[in-house]
Write a structure and sequence with these properties.
Layout: H1 4-13, E1 17-18, E2 23-24, E3 30-31, E4 34-35, H2 44-65, E5 79-83, H3 86-98, E6 102-110, E7 116-119, H4 126-130, E8 134-142, H5 146-157, E9 161-170, H6 177-180, E10 185-190, E11 196-197, H7 206-209, E12 214-215, H8 221-224, E13 233-234
Parallel strand pairs: 5-6, 5-8, 8-9, 9-10, 12-13
Antiparallel strand pairs: 1-4, 2-3, 3-11, 6-7
The structure holds zinc ion.
């Protein structure tokens, strides 16, 4: 079984950690650093090892709570659920590497009023699988736990129960299980030390003030510049 030291080495080899930059996070905040786990997409060996690590963490948790599982409303097998984009891949590798019988994924979208929501793909029959199942949410990166909360709402609205969350990297140790509103939360690796600004009147972005060029991708700089067309950018 690989450990967090191995994971850190992989992130360095894949250049997944960007520092001394200027980017927009999914939350809309600006930051000088970014963890881009999507560079791992398509790499079977490393994803399989990560899937094994996630599955081991879930197995350990299941052993801990074994005596508490007497809830007859949730008798189905465990389902590993991953929000798009990389969470979906991780759910699949976790299920295969850990020998779980089921996995599912949800799309992250905006509803007609522009609110972020999680949704089962209407072409797939995950709702039937989730109804009455105990679920673990897996995702690549935990920053504000927004995706996790949306996935949890969807699972619960579908009749499933969320037992916990496993993420590959947590960007802030302030995001605890309590903060994410789940019974249990585990990060394979904690990476912090980045500076982050709300980038509003109350908390202006120091990098914007210094006109540090905005990185378009990864992150949401490519969207931010639409509202700031004269700001310098970098690819
Ligand atoms: Zn900025």
């Amino acid at each position: 079984m690989k450990d967090s030291t191995w994971l850190e080495q992989q992130l360095n080899e894949f250049n997944a950690v960007i520092t001394n930059s200027h980017l927009v996070l999914t939350s809309g905040k600006h930051s000088d650093g970014y963890i881009n786990l999507r560079v791992l997409a398509g790499h079977v060996d490393v994803l399989y090892e990560i899937g094994e690590m996630i599955a081991a963490a879930i197995d350990e948790r299941e052993n801990e709570i074994e005596n508490d599982i007497s809830d007859g409303d949730y008798e189905k097998n465990i389902v590993i659920v991953g929000p798009e984009t990389l969470g979906r891949t991780l759910a699949e590798f976790t299920a295969v590497a850990g020998g779980f019988t089921s996995f599912a994924w949800c799309d992250m979208k905006k509803d007609s009023e522009g609110n972020d929501i999680a949704e089962w793909n209407p072409k797939l029959n995950f709702a039937e699988m989730i109804d009455g199942a105990r679920c673990y949410i897996v995702d690549d990166l935990l920053t504000t736990a927004k995706s996790v909360k949306l996935a949890k709402q969807l699972i619960e609205a579908t009749g499933g129960k969320v037992e916990g969350v496993v993420v590959v990297v947590r960007r802030s140790q302030e995001v605890t299980a309590e903060a994410a509103d789940v019974p249990w939360l585990y990060a394979l690796l904690d990476v912090d030390g980045f500076n982050t600004w709300a980038a509003n009147e109350n908390e202006p972005c120091v990098l914007c003030q210094a006109l540090v060029p905005m990185k378009l991708r990864p992150g949401h700089g490519h969207e931010w510049v639409k509202g700031h067309p004269d700001y310098p950018t970098t690819s």
